[in-house]
């Protein structure tokens, strides 16, 4: 009995010591520590990796851009799972030591000055799920064996490099891919639309700004029903926007600007409830704007430089989140709906170079802080709204080549941010605000 009572405190102290020792030993696996040092060396010990030094911080998991696992392996060691090394001024290529980090799942080396062909050393990173090589200077054609990247890849961002040639079907060899960004390169020919359309988990697709051969928007993309972002400006699209894309109900952003499309804007574009940004600037579209708009979450509408006709719909006044409305350089006629003056978030309006008539909505500027309004070169008349500058933030007021009349609002004089005021060729009268 007495032995037990005497032994118990010793036992408790022993357990505490063990716990403490275990806590202290959540150290990085030796192989990973060596790999990090080799990576730093591979990039020429750049100043941006100065913190990657045991003398600065003993624990490599606290080094800049290094993420380690929460859980440790059997030997009480943690492992490196992520490297976030964007904008580190790296040049050269990707050091092979990167894939000595056996548990690396995430690699972001965007916004550096990396060059050369696609870094095949990455095929050795067997756990990689997230790869961002965007905004570098990689060039050459993408290799056909790019499918040797891990099959569970979810994020592949090769955008804003100088890759050229045709895009191999192998970029779509990753069945659980969610983000495929190939935009802003020098790709030519056709892209593997059929293979891409099988990536049914895809949430964002970027093909924009490549010199593809002219061709229509692939009907098959209608299968990509999880897409939230479809980025296809400046890639030689022809033909009509497919009706079948009405299946893309998760879309929040669509950009088809700078293409050679034909036909009208299909009804679904104005009905998808999740759409926030609609960019169809200089796309070749024509036809009338619809009466019935139910895409009430729209924040930006950019449809300048098309051949849109007919009147602006009253339903624009339902878009309570709209901040940006640009439909300049079209052939719109009729009056600007009064409801637009009631929108609470509208800050940028460009309706120039149409043939709009009637008066500006009298409450424009009363309910939202307008920064920029351009209605030049229309057939508008009547007075300027009195409260355009109610919030004192108006920076551009451009209304030349119309037939506005009456006196200028005296409070324009309080418009301390005003940088551009162009009112010539109208029928204004009275005094110019001092
Ligand atoms: C690291 O990867 C190895 C081999 O794939 C695996 O056995 C181990 O469980 C991983 N460790 C952690 C902490 O994920
Ligand atoms: C980028 O790398 C190239 C060589 O590949 C070099 O000539 C150039 O100066 C580098 N630019 C910057 C900003 O480091
Ligand atoms: C469109 O295609 C034509 C013919 O292939 C090509 O010359 C042109 O550069 C392409 N334009 C763009 C913007 O990619
Ligand atoms: C407007 O469109 C919605 C959604 O497509 C539809 O339910 C509604 O009936 C339409 N309203 C009119 C007036 O056409
Ligand atoms: C006015 O708009 C018409 C088309 O609506 C265009 O042809 C003309 O060049 C524009 N004038 C100016 C001065 O911008
Ligand atoms: C603009 O509309 C007015 C009627 O509001 C019409 O008289 C005029 O011809 C139209 N101008 C052009 C260039 O279409
Ligand atoms: C004044 O504006 C009207 C309407 O846009 C336009 O038709 C006319 O040519 C303009 N006059 C001058 C002198 O620029
Ligand atoms: C401009 O408006 C005035 C009335 O404010 C009208 O008398 C005149 O005819 C209009 N000019 C044009 C070209 O429509």
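^ Assign residues to that structure.
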């Amino acid at each position: 009995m007495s032995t037990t009572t005497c032994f118990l405190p010793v036992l408790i102290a022993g357990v505490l010591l063990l716990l403490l020792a275990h806590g202290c030993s959540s150290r990085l696996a030796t192989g990973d520590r060596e790999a990090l040092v080799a990576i730093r060396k591979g990039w020429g010990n750049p100043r941006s990796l100065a913190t990657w030094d045991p003398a600065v911080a003993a624990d490599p998991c606290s080094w800049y851009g290094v993420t380690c696992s929460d859980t440790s392996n059997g030997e009480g060691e943690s492992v490196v799972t992520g490297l976030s090394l964007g904008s580190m001024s790296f040049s050269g290529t990707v050091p092979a030591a990167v894939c000595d980090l056996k548990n690396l799942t995430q690699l972001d080396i965007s916004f550096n000055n990396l060059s050369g062909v696609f870094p095949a050393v990455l095929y050795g990173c067997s756990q990689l799920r997230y790869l961002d090589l965007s905004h570098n200077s990689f060039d050459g054609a993408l290799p056909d064996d790019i499918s040797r990247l891990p099959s569970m890849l979810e994020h592949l961002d090769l955008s804003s490099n100088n890759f050229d040639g045709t895009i191999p079907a192998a970029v779509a060899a990753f069945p659980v891919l969610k983000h495929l960004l190939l935009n802003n390169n020098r790709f030519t020919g056709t892209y593997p639309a059929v293979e891409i359309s099988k990536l049914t988990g895809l949430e964002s697709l970027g093909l924009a700004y490549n010199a593809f051969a002219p061709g229509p928007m692939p009907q098959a993309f209608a299968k990509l029903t999880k897409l939230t972002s479809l980025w296809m400006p400046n890639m030689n699209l022809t033909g009509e926007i497919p009706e079948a894309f009405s299946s893309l109900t998760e879309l929040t952003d669509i950009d088809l600007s700078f293409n050679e499309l034909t036909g009208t804007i299909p009804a679904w574009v104005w009905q998808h409830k999740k759409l926030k940004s609609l960019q169809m600037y200089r796309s070749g579209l024509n036809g009338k704007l619809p009466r019935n708009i139910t895409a009430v979450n729209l924040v930006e509408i950019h449809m300048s430089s098309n051949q849109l006709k007919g009147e602006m719909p009253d339903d624009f006044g339902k878009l309570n989140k709209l901040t940006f409305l640009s439909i300049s350089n079209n052939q719109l006629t009729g009056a600007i709906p009064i409801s637009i003056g009631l929108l609470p978030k509208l800050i940028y309006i460009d309706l120039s170079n149409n043939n709009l008539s009637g008066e500006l909505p009298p409450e424009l500027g009363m309910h939202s802080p307008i920064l920029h309004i351009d209605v030049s070169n229309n057939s508008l008349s009547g007075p300027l709204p009195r409260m355009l500058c109610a919030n004192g933030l108006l920076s551009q007021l451009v209304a030349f080549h119309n037939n506005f009349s009456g006196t200028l609002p005296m409070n324009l004089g309080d418009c301390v941010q005003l940088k551009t005021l162009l009112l010539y060729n109208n029928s204004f009268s009275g005094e110019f605000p001092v």
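Helices lie at 2-24, 30-42, 193-196.
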